[in-house]
Amino acid sequence: MPQTFRASALVPRGFLVDEITSDGASALITVRSIETASICPGCGTRSDRVHSRYYRRLADLPIAGRPVRLMVRARRFYCRAVLCGRLVFAERFDGDVLAPWARRTARLDHIVHHLGLALGGRPAASFARRLMVPVSKDTLLRVIRRRGSPPFVPPTIIGIDDWAWRRNQRYGTLICDLERRRTIALLPDREPATAKEWLSRQPQIAVVARDRGGAYALAAAKALPDATQVADRWHLMENASRAFLDAVRKSMRQIRSVVGAATINPKLLTAAERIQYEGYLRREEDNAAILRLAKDGIAIKEIVRRTGYSRCLVRRILRGQRSDIFRVRESSLELYLPWLDERWAAGDRNATALWRRLKQEGFRGSLRVISEWATRQRQADKVGSAPSRTPAARTIARLLTISRDQLSRSEALTVAAIEDGVPLLVEAREIVAAFQAMVRKRCLDVLDPWLERARSSLVVSFANGVLKDKAAVSAAITSPWSNGQTEGQITKLKLVKRQMYGRGKLDLLQARVMGSA
Relative to the CA of 216, which of 111, 172, 246, 403 has its CA 20 to 30 Å away? Predict the structure, then answer.
């Protein structure tokens, strides 16, 4: 048997419908409370003595695609308490139905709040108009700020990492509850003192997952000395790969010698390459001058004063980290060089035709790249020698670490020459591979032998960093926790921040990130 529909079902609970009218564009519903008394907000005394009546005009959820306005016939009551300062008070309703001084019902305000959390100000206002809930972008942001961030359960396992307000200029800190997989706090900066203050208010925390930076390690050690710190496994793997790339860069002089490209013929260079080569020669002179000063026992501070170079650059030169490669960037042509050599040997000498065919193969570079390569080849044919070509450091690192069956014949010959001529680089590759295997297989017992071996290799700087942070690295190998969830929350934070064109303040960002979880 079908149920009878009542008009009171359209309005919030606790109200009776007196009248429903419509002007074609919107609906107007006049309602009154079913209660006969109300509680004084000053003293809590219940009163049923009516002083007067007035109307409150409210917005409510739309009906059948039409905006709805509620006309609430509210009352004022006399307070019966003799000592109460309020002689007359306005009728109060349940907080989850209608708040004092509100211009929207609680259920509509709930929808407005979640629209703001999901979309922000301007996009949510545009979408709200389509839902027949006219509300401005400023009102949406005020609702988000008024409700603030929801309370969180005190965490025991957290992840902490930094995020960029503005890249390379200003940073904040995000703290994530790894067990519940949600953001619980945003801090305005990444200073150790700020993180320490927040952590000290959460003494129940037992595990802190963090990156390899020292700021959060220092803050956690001071605020939570008994907590276990866990280094992020992804950063460990990335740091190991970067250490091997640095080892390749340090060994580029030997690599150039073993592949037969230690001497560059300026006649085989294009105009742009000749300018780069002249800069390379100037850098070589500067490097040699700084190395001579260091060999004479002069301190770094004095070298900086005499040469005018920065302390960072002088340190890089003394450590062999300043690149002395002719081509300092990996070319977009690297993958297509074997095919180009084959077509050139077959008699295809038109650079434009070669470029068009390469585009069909997926090449995204410009015609100028192919033209410079063809010019170099023609000059080499005139001189009678092949152009010297040394792969970039990143290319060499990739060739040394991928499987041999993925290499072409020329790449395999290059790798074989490097392995025969630079044994220290081969040792560094084995050490880095051993470390990454140790992290993947969770083999903590081989960490100490690995450190002994690595401290006399090209990756000694990475080994020293692991030794300095040994407790956190050991926990990363054995613990199931890591900072991956925190990185995911930072990605979500970046999306929310960009939705607001980068202008959201900390309270608004925190409310949106935590409220939408």
Answer: 246
Cβ 227 vs Cβ 205: under 8 Å: yes
Separation CA 119–CA 127 (nearest Å):
9
pLDDT value at 511 more than 60: yes
Which 3 state secondary structure label does DSSP give 491?
A: helix
Tens digit of each residue's pLDDT (9 = 90 or more) over 322-338: 655 454 455 677 778 87
Which residue from 439, 426, 428 is spatially nearest to 462, judged by alpha carbons? Answer: 428
Distance between CA atoms of residues 218 and 148, nearest Å: 30
Classified as helix, coil or strand, 266 is helix
Give the Cα separation of 371 and 130 in Å (integer).
56
Strand 50-63 relative to strand 66-78: parallel, antiparallel, unpaired? antiparallel
Non-local CB neighbours of 463 within 8 Å, separated by 6+ positions: 451, 454, 455, 457
Please report the DSSP string for 409-437 in residue order.
Answer: HHHHHHHHHHHHH-HHHHHHHHHHHHHHH
Strands 88-90 and 38-39: unpaired
Beta carbons of 125 and 131 less than 8 angstroms apart = no
Average pLDDT, the chain: 86
Judge if pTM exceeds 0.90. no
Please check whether residue 514 is in contact with residue 150, taking contact to mean a CB–CB distance below 8 angstroms: yes
Quote the radius of gyration of the chain (alpha carbons, Å): 35
CATH of domain 157-232+482-515: 3.30.420.10
